[in-house]
Write a structure and sequence with these properties.
Blueprint (H helix, E strand, L loop, with lengths): L3 H10 L3 H11 L6 H12 L17 H8 L19 H16 L3 H24 L31 H10 L7 H10 L1 H13 L13 H17 L3 H7 L12 H15 L19 H9 L8 H14 L1 H7 L1
Helix pairs in contact: 1-2, 1-14, 2-3, 3-14, 5-6, 6-9, 6-10, 6-11, 7-9, 9-10, 11-12, 14-15
Length: 330
C-alpha cells in the first residue's frame, strides 16, 4: 500500500464497511459522509432487514441506493409504506445472492451459511408471489384462505397436515394486520417463516386438501405445486443441514470451503428430481453454482445477484478519491 488512503480504498473494495467507517475519520476527517455511508453498507451486508429503511444522512447515501435498500426492507408496522420485501421478495433475494457471493470471497463461511439458511426459509413465499401478486403480505391475504371448508389456521384440526407451529402461524397471519406494531414485529420475528412452510405444504404435499387454496387459478396450480415442492426440499438439503450441524459461536467450528462445496454438490443431486430442481445443476458462474438459477426457477422469474453492495463500495471509493470535493457536492 502506498498510503493510508490506499488502505481505505482497499477496505472499501473488500466491503469492510465497519473497519472503513472506524478508520476513515483518522485519515480523511473532512470526509464527514463516509461513516454514515459505511453504516448503511454494513446493515445491508449483515442483512439487517429491519433497519434497511432507517433514516440515514440523506447527504451521505444517494437516493437511488436508499430506494434500492427500501425494496429489501421488511415493514415494521402493518400500514408502513412502501411495502418493501412484502411487495416483492425478488430484490431481497438478489441482495441475498450478492451477500452470499461476498461472504464466499471473504471466506466468511458462517455468515454465508446464515444467508443461505435465510433464503431457504422464505423460498415458498418467493414461489407464491407469482400467484399472490405480492410476497406474503398479511395485510393483503386473499379472502379464499378463509373460504368455507378451509382448515387454514384452524388450531387443533387433526385433518390438517400443518405442524402445530405452522397452524399457529397460519392462524396469527390472518389477524396480525390488525395488531399494534409490537405484535406485527413479534409475528415476523417468530412466525412468518413458519407461515411460508405452511403455504407450501397446502399446495405441494397436503394429504387431505381443503378449500384454502381454491383461489389459486387452475392453470397456475401445477407449476406452483412443483415450485413449492422444490422450495420445501431445499430446506432439507445437505447444505442446510450443514449449517444446523455447525452451531457457530459455541466452540464447534465453521465448515471449510471444501465442506460447503461438497454439501452443495450433494444438495444439487438431492434437488434434481424435476425440471425446477434440475435448475440447480446449471453452471451459472456463481460460487455455489446453480443457486441463482434455482431461485429463478422457484420464483418463476429471473433473479440475479444484486449490485447494491458493489455500488455502495464504489461510491465510497469515489468519496475517498476526492473527499473534500465530494462531501461538498453530494
Amino acid at each position: 500500500m502506498e498510503s493510508p488512503l490506499d488502505l481505505l480504498t482497499e477496505l472499501a473494495s473488500r466491503y469492510a464497511f465497519a473497519d472503513l467507517g472506524a478508520l476513515a475519520p483518522m485519515v480523511v476527517p473532512e470526509a464527514v459522509l463516509i461513516p454514515a455511508l459505511c453504516e448503511f453498507g454494513q446493515r445491508l451486508l449483515t442483512l439487517d432487514a429491519e433497519d434497511f429503511a432507517t433514516e440515514v444522512d440523506a447527504k451521505a447515501v444517494p437516493s437511488a441506493l436508499r430506494r434500492r435498500a427500501r425494496d429489501c426492507h421488511m415493514p415494521q408496522t402493518p400500514r408502513e409504506q412502501p411495502r418493501g420485501a412484502l411487495a416483492s421478495l425478488r430484490p431481497a433475494y438478489g441482495l441475498l445472492l450478492e451477500v452470499i457471493r461476498i461472504r464466499w470471497e471473504r471466506r466468511e463461511l458462517s455468515s454465508l451459511m446464515a444467508a443461505v439458511h435465510i433464503a431457504g426459509e422464505y423460498l415458498p413465499l418467493l414461489a407464491f408471489e407469482s400467484v399472490l401478486g405480492h410476497a406474503g403480505d398479511p395485510a393483503r391475504w386473499p379472502a379464499g384462505l378463509r373460504a368455507e371448508g378451509s382448515r387454514f389456521g384452524a388450531i387443533g384440526d387433526r385433518e390438517c397436515d400443518h405442524t402445530k407451529s405452522e397452524k399457529s402461524a397460519a392462524e396469527r397471519t390472518l389477524r396480525v394486520a390488525q395488531e399494534p406494531p409490537e405484535g406485527w414485529r413479534a409475528y415476523f420475528d417468530r412466525q412468518h417463516s413458519q407461515l411460508a412452510g405452511a403455504m407450501a405444504t397446502c399446495v405441494a404435499k397436503c394429504r387431505r386438501p381443503c378449500t384454502a387454496m381454491d383461489w389459486v387459478p387452475a392453470e397456475a396450480r401445477e407449476s406452483l405445486a412443483m415450485r413449492c415442492k422444490v422450495a420445501l426440499a431445499f430446506a432439507d438439503t445437505p447444505v442446510i443441514r450443514l449449517r444446523h450441524a455447525a452451531p457457530v459461536g459455541h466452540g464447534f467450528g465453521v465448515p471449510s470451503p471444501e465442506e460447503v462445496l461438497d454439501a452443495w454438490a450433494r444438495s444439487r443431486a438431492h434437488l434434481d428430481k424435476n425440471v425446477v430442481g434440475a435448475s440447480a445443476s446449471r453452471d451459472d458462474g456463481f460460487p455455489l453454482p446453480g443457486l441463482p438459477s434455482l431461485f429463478s426457477a422457484i420464483a418463476g422469474a429471473p433473479i440475479e445477484p444484486a449490485t447494491l453492495l458493489a455500488d455502495v463500495a464504489g461510491h465510497l471509493v469515489a468519496l475517498l478519491g476526492r473527499p473534500a470535493v465530494r462531501a461538498a457536492q453530494v
